[in-house]
Amino acid sequence: MSATSVNKAVKKSRAARQAAKARTAVDVAKDQIGDPYRFGGTGPGSFDCSGLVQYAWKKAGVRIPRVTNAQYAGIRKKVSFSSLKPGDLLFFRGLGHVGMYVGKGKMIHSPRTGQTVRVEKLSGWRKASFVGAVRPGA
């Protein structure tokens, strides 16, 4: 086996492990649908936006920072809007909000006080206020 084919195999297995962890993180986040927003909430039972994604990725075996700006800065793998995969973290409004991409143009997030964890389409203000995205565990 050549060095090039070994490198390709390693990259494929690393990508497969990341994708499996991302599926777990998405499933964990979806299990929280209906839980109330609570500022500073890290679960279980209530979450703020960054607490939800941190909780989900932790359950998938990946540690990420607690707050949105640290999550964006601390995760090296940045991805474009057109390259999103389930599990990617999406940042909005000057890094003031984060959600997790779940596929098919939708994200899961814990929006704000008085609301609950839910899945929503990435359209309107969300798309207009998109700052960037990262891929945990990559």
From TrEMBL:
Domain annotation NlpC/P60: ranges: 19-137
GO BP annotations listed: proteolysis
Entries under InterPro entries matching the protein: NLP_P60_dom, Papain-like_cys_pep_sf, Peptidase_C40
Keyword terms: Hydrolase, Protease, Thiol protease
Keyword Protease part of the UniProt annotation: yes
Pfam families per UniProt: NLPC_P60
Similarity field: Belongs to the peptidase C40 family.
Name of the protein: Cell wall-associated NlpC family hydrolase
